[in-house]
Amino acid sequence: MIARFTGAALTLVAALAVPASAPAHATGLNPAVEQQLGEAYAATARYGYTPFATADGYRARVCLARAQGGMGFHYFNESHFGSLDPTRPGALLYEDAGHGERRLIGVEWVVPVTGKNMKRPRLFGQDFQGPMPGHYPGMPTHYDLHVWLYKQNPNGLFAQWNPRVTCPASAAQGMKGMKGANGSQGMSSMKGTQGTQGTQSMQSTQDSQDMQAMQGMHDTPGR
After folding, report:
1. Which of 7, 33, 106, 134 is 20 to 30 A off residue 23, Cα-Cα?
2. Sorting pLDDT into bands at 50, 70 and 90, what band is 222?
3. 175 and 200 in contact (C-beta within 8 Å)?
């Protein structure tokens, strides 16, 4: 009986060490990259329960989507900005799961731009995308890298936009409630269905400007 239980436990641990999207995406990846993705999964799977995310410093900021796909609700942890550690992403990505819940769908690394000669960051064997403007007041111009660990993306594991992700109409509350030019504490007047600092979506004009600014920047010099 003990041997059977031990075997089952080891099987479960092994399963949790592999990204949920591995069967769909990871074939052919460098073993070192697969190892890093496993580390990222092991470090972030607990954030499927959003109170764990907010307790660890992730704050709901914005839901981003456009015609070609979405990124979902972004929960940012500014203390992780600049991290290239697979276990310390700067953002968690969620989608509306209904009944006031949110489902973890991906993770994102955010590296602020420190100068015009800054070398483009790399992680998981991938170049970061950008540079691009911040998504909320006070967020710096940055490079970022999305990894769809928890929801398959037909465009690829590291694609920026996921055509299977949308932002609910109820999230379209604009950027109101942001405090000051630097956006400190930003979300004070926003109400979230889970009460987790609230989440706002970009107003149509602001969203358009932000998204246009993000287009055509992927090949910006800086490598």
Report:
1. 7
2. very low
3. yes
